[in-house]
Design brief:
The protein has 268 residues and is α+β, with helices and mostly antiparallel strands. Helices cover 38% and strands 18% of the residues. It has seven helices and eight strands, in the order ααβββαβαβααβαββ.
Length: 268
């Protein structure tokens, strides 16, 4: 008789053989699924099928699992190896950032779907890239002046004070913003957080936030200058008063004559 831990370990190996991308996210999902399927007071069967799909020779066979809980409820999970993904074609009219725009749009949409200010208002993410006129002076200050003139609601805003921040603190700040809103979500009261509870480290929003920073930093280059205005809690736990005063975050990333703007809107 195997223990639950032994079953989960063996099941993880079976699932990993079907998952074609052995990155950190895949490992977390494999471990989660294995633990769920091999939980206590449950029976688990592996259903075998033909070793090879006739329409796709050479690909591994799907993995079929049948889980029966102690109350008799059953669950079948089928894992099929994903086909190799090809990059979408990019035409000249799309521009060099077409694939980047598509990927960023997917990440920002998912983040807004996962993170909420309250039970009615999601956290909103926006990203754009613009051109700066050649000139001397502090890059972040020049980008701040450009932002005042080019933001959608420019008429209602004066120039903000952007504070310089290293890339590592930008990443930490976004992780903490994600963690703050996950804390609100898991708390469920939507009336402020009295105590930050322990959150699952493998939540999808955490990976998406890291992906967002990776993409933006890779696009803007190693010599990027970064400044931010609003809320960017680089330490944990954050100051609750700062969150009440600054429900928005704006990040400027400047490289030579380009500026990227990341907006995070946490207003109700």
């Amino acid at each position: 008789m195997c223990t639950d831990e032994e079953v989960a370990s063996g099941l993880g190996s079976l699932i990993s053989a079907v998952v074609g991308t052995p990155d950190r996210r895949a490992e977390v999902l494999v471990r989660f699924l294995a633990d769920e399927m091999a939980g206590p007071y449950a029976d688990l069967l592996r259903l075998t099928t033909d070793s090879e799909r006739p329409d796709e020779p050479g690909r591994p066979a799907p993995l079929h699992l049948l889980h029966r809980d102690f109350d008799g409820s059953t669950l079948r999970v089928s894992l099929h190896p994903a086909p190799e993904i090809q990059q979408p074609p990019v035409s000249d009219s799309d521009g060099a950032d077409a694939a980047l725009r598509t990927r960023l749009a997917c990440i920002l949409t998912l983040l807004s779907d996962l993170l909420w200010v309250n039970n009615n208002s999601p956290v909103t993410f926006r990203f754009r890239i613009g051109r700066l006129d050649p000139g001397d002076g502090d890059p972040v200050a020049a980008a701040a002046r450009w932002w005042v003139e080019n933001r959608e609601d420019a008429d209602g805003h004066d120039e903000e004070a952007f504070r310089p921040v290293p890339a590592a603190d930008l990443r930490a700040g976004l992780r903490n913003l994600v963690r703050m809103h996950l804390s609100e979500l898991f708390d469920g009261s939507w009336d402020g957080i009295d105590e930050f509870r322990e959150l699952p480290a493998d939540h999808l929003a955490t990976f998406l936030g890291d992906d967002l920073i990776d993409l933006v930093l890779a696009r803007m280059g190693a010599d990027v200058h970064i400044g931010y205005a609003g809320l960017l809690p680089t330490t944990w736990p954050p100051d609750g008063e700062d969150f009440e005063k600054e429900p928005q975050t704006t990040v400027l990333l400047v490289d030579r004559h380009e500026v990227a703007v990341l907006e995070i809107d946490m207003t109700c």
